[in-house]
Amino acid sequence: MQSAMKLYKNLARFYDLIYSQTFREFHEKYAQFVFEAYKKFCKSKGKDLLEVACGTGELLRRLKKLGFNVAGLDLSNEMIKIAKKKIKANFYVADMKDFSLGKNFDVIVCAFTSMNYNLNRKELENTLKNFYTHLKQGGITVFDMPPKKFLEKRIGNQWLRVFEHGDLEIVRISQLEKGEKENTVRNVMMYFFKEKGKVDFEIDIHEHGLFKVSEVKKLMKKCGFKKVYVFGGLNFEKYTVNSNRAYFLGVK
Q1: Per residue in 111-151, pLDDT tens?
Q2: Which of 13, 54, 127, 128 could make an S-S bridge to 223, C-beta 3.0–4.6 Å?
Q3: d(Cα 42, Cα 124) in Å, to the nearest integer?
C-alpha cells in the first residue's frame, strides 16, 4: 500500500474533479454557513480566515467571494498546487496538529470531516489548542464531525459512484471498516480510471477517529474556548441524537 502523501500525489487531480462535482452545492451551503456564523458570533474586527485541510481550494474559493481574506493549509503539497491555480492566497503545507504560522485569524475553518483525521483525544486536543492559539481574541472556529454512533452504524456499508468528465471515467467503490485502533474506522476506497483508452486503479485508505459530541465539547472548553455551540445542520438547526453530522462553533 502506498503512503498517504504518495497516493495524494497521484490522486490530487482526480480528487479535485470528483469533489468539485459531487459537493458543489454542499460547498456553497457550507461557505454561507461560515459567513453567517461569522456575522452572528465573531467578535474580532477583521475578516482574516484560515481553512485547515483546505484540499484543492473549492470551499476557500467560495469564502473569498464572500469577502474573507483567505489562507489555506493542507498536509498535501499536491492539493495546495491545485488550490494555488484557483485562488490568490497564502498557502501552507503543514499538519493541523502542530502548525505554527506566526499569524492570527478571525475565523479558522476545518470542513468535510477533516477533523476526524485526529485519531484519538490527544491528537484532537492538540489540534484544538492550535486553532485556539491562531485565533484573534473574539475569533471563531467552525468545523464538522459525524457523531461516533452514526459512523459505527455505517461500518460494513458499501457505496459505488461513477464520475465522467470528457474522456475521463472514474468508478469509486468505498467501504467503511472498523479501524485497527480503538475508536477508529477505515474508509477504504478503490478507484478505477479510464482515460484515453488506458485503465488504471488506486486504493485510497483513510483512517478516522470516532468522537462523541459531548467529548468534543469538553475538549473545546478545556482548550480555552469561552463559548461552544453545536448545530445539526447548515441552517443552524438544533443538534439532536438523530443528526448525522455535528457542526461545532467555538468562540475565543
Answers
A1: 999 999 999 999 999 999 999 999 999 999 999 999 999 99
A2: 128
A3: 23
